[in-house]
């Protein structure tokens, strides 16, 4: 594509898109092709994709099983849109497959188009089931860009003037690297979990509708709670009559390397699990799965989602579940995650601006700081690293409240050679900072 065409696209974005639609990089990247762990730009340049859009690519770009099925459906003139009002085998099959991989007795599915909608639905169902309104969420947490999720959001950078935040209280995050109590990971008394009880006691009447939490806080910079946190919080929430919502939009589909949903790593069976991103491998699919008695709380009322569960989207989500199982991708996520962490520790020895290495499986974060002693955030280094990594043909992400956390979440089918490619490229990128 010519440079004139690129400039035309940039001008069109400026003129016709909301100003919140900000592109990565000083010179925005135009991606046009993808396969496996790689993407290509309009100039034919190949990049190793280590962020998968926004942590959406779970089984690899254009996986053959999904691609072939989509071709078959297109060639057969398969209907593209049916809604809930008609029968669809793909909708029913996806729901059954999801119930089989969910923990405990979670078996009732509501399909959406995004994680924002899934979290809206989970909160609404919890409020209907309990008859209460108060929901607790975490500081540094993120649950989507629609009305209720933005009220739950724990980032001032994502909130807007006039944004409603009714019946929501925010709790300190289990942020071990920056523990508000000055404790060290796995040697504390889980003061961060006790904070949930304190917030219930001081900001509610003692009863709540729900607590919502990401097992690893995604936008917050892949903040990974200590072992035992979720179980302790679950017990506190239950004593307050609330529902536990596990937001697995970023952590789900086996990405953490042990279970299909990360909350099961903590031996907790929540009341709701929400998902999107990786469950569709890039297709606009979201879902909620809950217990029958919670879903039944909505009986007698109408609720509708125009596109949730459409054939092409539901087919892709169902195929993702099959592929993860058939190709042992959860095991690969654990193995490659350990390998990458070891590589990052080697990098940390040479580049002390890497203050913290965290995450599980293939959901990994590097928090960049000015120096190890002060731990002062270094967002400038994170932004520069993205640029220098791009020059090494590697695409990474960043996040965290201060924008100083490098986020790495490749396809769960990533290979050792591709991990080596990342580590070599990142070493050169750090050296060029």
Textual characterization of the structure:
With 433 residues, this protein is of the alpha/beta class. The protein is built from 13 helices and 17 strands. The chain has helices spanning 3-16, 52-55, 64-75, 89-101, 115-130, 147-152, 191-203, 229-239, 292-295, 311-326, 329-350, 379-391, 416-431, and strands at 31-35, 38-41, 46-49, 108-112, 135-138, 168-171, 210-213, 216-217, 223-224, 243-247, 272-275, 286-290, 354-360, 363-368, 394-395, 397-399, 405-408. It is globular, with a radius of gyration of 21 Å. The model has no long low-confidence stretch (mean pLDDT 96).
Order of helices and strands: HEEEHHHEHEHEHEEEHEEEHHHEEHEEEH
Oligomerization: single chain
Distance between the termini: 30 Å
Query: Helix content range of the residues, please?
Result: 25-40%
Instruction: Output the number of helix runs.
Output: 13
Name of the CATH architecture of the largest domain: 3-Layer(aba) Sandwich
Beta-strand portion reads 15-25%
CATH superfamily of the largest domain, by name, is Type I PLP-dependent aspartate aminotransferase-like (Major domain)
Summed up:
The chain has 433 residues and is α/β, with parallel strands linked by helices.
Properties at a glance:
433 residues; 17 strands; Aspartate Aminotransferase, domain 1; 4-stranded mixed β-sheet; alpha/beta; Aspartate Aminotransferase, domain 2
Describe how the helices and strands are arranged:
Blueprint: H1 3-16, E1 31-35, E2 38-41, E3 46-49, H2 52-55, H3 64-75, H4 89-101, E4 108-112, H5 115-130, E5 135-138, H6 147-152, E6 168-171, H7 191-203, E7 210-213, E8 216-217, E9 223-224, H8 229-239, E10 243-247, E11 272-275, E12 286-290, H9 292-295, H10 311-326, H11 329-350, E13 354-360, E14 363-368, H12 379-391, E15 394-395, E16 397-399, E17 405-408, H13 416-431
Parallel strand pairs: 3-15, 5-6, 5-7, 7-10, 10-11
Antiparallel strand pairs: 1-2, 2-3, 4-12, 8-9, 11-12, 13-14, 14-17, 16-17
Helix pairs in contact: 3-10, 4-10, 7-8, 11-13, 12-13
